[in-house]
Design goal:
By secondary structure, the protein is mainly alpha-helical. The protein has two domains: 2-154, no CATH class; 165-353, no CATH class. Helix content is 54%, strand content 2%. A two-stranded antiparallel sheet has the order 1-2. Helix 1 (2-12) packs antiparallel against helix 2 (32-41), helix 10 crosses helix 16 (332-348) and helix 12 (246-252) packs across helix 15. It is globular, with a radius of gyration of 19 Å.
Length: 353
């Protein structure tokens, strides 16, 4: 199926990282390459090409180049979406000159503090790393460049105040977080708006030090996925599931990168992956984690089939993230979250015009 994955990536290779929706009132992230990798992980790569061909018409073309980014002055372009094509060219050059693992280890610690603001770029990079780890091809190397470019162009770091680590698991730390006032957690159009307000919530600066970054990575990832699965279940009826699911997919995306990075980068992945999930909890979550342990009637295969039939790409993304965690900790709440999120996305519908 490697050839199918590369061909599907080729269908999307001329598309930009974002596209206009709702009559140009808002820009949405291009999830296509991430979904292609998720389909491969779900053993559904055979449908990746058809899925990409269906998805491509909604996307906008790649933006134009502006000015070459210098290796000595890259900070000047950090966080500038107007330079996203320049960033892609920059990372294409970096990846032509060094192995992909070297580039990821060089840039992950630099970009990790901006994971919350650059959540889609960080997730796309993680999917690209998982894909390229299976087969190093020109299409996947370029996709890694595009993911890193989107992350660098989206980069916004929230304040961090270093405290003595509390050494908690995410399921223990979640109750220690202070949320925005209810009025600020509702009525938003883009989830980035309430998340940006966390810069003015003093307590959030200490959130990253609540968890135990010395904990075994897969254990911490699975714990984070499980607690956020419970949050998805309790909040799906009241919070837009397209936004809400990024606390899970963004918070646990780092698990796809960690096997290929240094010890320092791995520690950063745990810290800032947790900060990402915590930001979504503090900014848009309305209800506490659900206390449910029911096992869905459908099988795992049927849950995947429902995700494939969902017109919203987030159904596949959430299902992939939940099953990735389920392989480490087979908690049925992860299956429930995947199924209920897909069904809620179907209820909400997808009308971008």
């Amino acid at each position: 199926m490697d050839e199918v994955v590369d061909e599907a990536l080729g269908v999307l290779s001329d598309a930009g990282p974002e596209y206009e929706a709702f009559g140009g009132r808002i820009s949405l992230a291009n999830h296509g390459p991430m979904v292609i990798d998720a389909l491969s992980a779900l053993d559904c790569a055979g449908v990746a090409l058809e899925w990409a061909q269906r998805y491509r018409p909604r996307l906008d073309p790649r933006p134009d180049r502006k000015e070459r980014i210098s290796a000595s002055a890259w900070r000047d372009a950090l966080g500038d979406m107007g330079r996203v094509r320049d960033w892609a060219d920059f990372f294409d050059e970096e990846l032509a000159e060094a192995p992909w693992t070297t580039v990821v280890n060089r840039w992950y610690p630099r970009l990790a503090p901006g994971m919350v603001g650059g959540v889609h770029g960080a997730i796309r990079t993680a999917h690209a790393v998982r894909s390229i780890s299976n087969a190093v091809t020109a299409a996947r190397v370029h996709e890694l460049a595009e993911g890193l470019a989107y992350w660098a162009a989206q980069y916004v770091a929230l304040p961090r105040r270093s405290n003595a680590p509390a050494a908690l698991l995410p399921s223990q730390a979640i109750s220690r977080l202070e949320q925005l006032d209810l009025a600020e957690r509702t009525g938003w159009v883009r989830f980035t708006d309430p998340i940006a307000r966390l810069a003015d919530l003093p307590s959030f600066a200490a959130a990253t030090d609540l968890i135990d970054t010395n904990c075994d990575g897969p254990t911490l990832d699975a714990d984070l996925a499980t607690v956020f699965a419970r949050i998805l279940i309790s909040n799906n009826p009241s919070v837009n599931p397209r936004a809400l699911c990024h606390g899970l997919t963004g918070g646990t995306a780092t698990s796809m990168i960690r096997p290929y990075v240094s010890t320092d980068a791995a520690e950063a992945s745990l810290r800032y992956g947790w900060q990402t999930a915590a930001a979504f909890y503090c900014a848009i979550v309305l209800e506490p984690p659900a206390d449910v342990d029911d096992v869905p009637t459908p099988t795992v295969a049927e849950i995947i089939d429902e995700a494939l039939d969902c017109p919203d790409e987030h159904g596949i993304k959430v299902t992939d993230a939940c099953l990735r965690a389920y392989a480490v900790r087979p908690d049925p709440v992860l299956l429930t979250a995947a199924l209920k999120t897909t069904r809620r996305l179907n209820e909400v519908g997808l009308d971008l015009y």
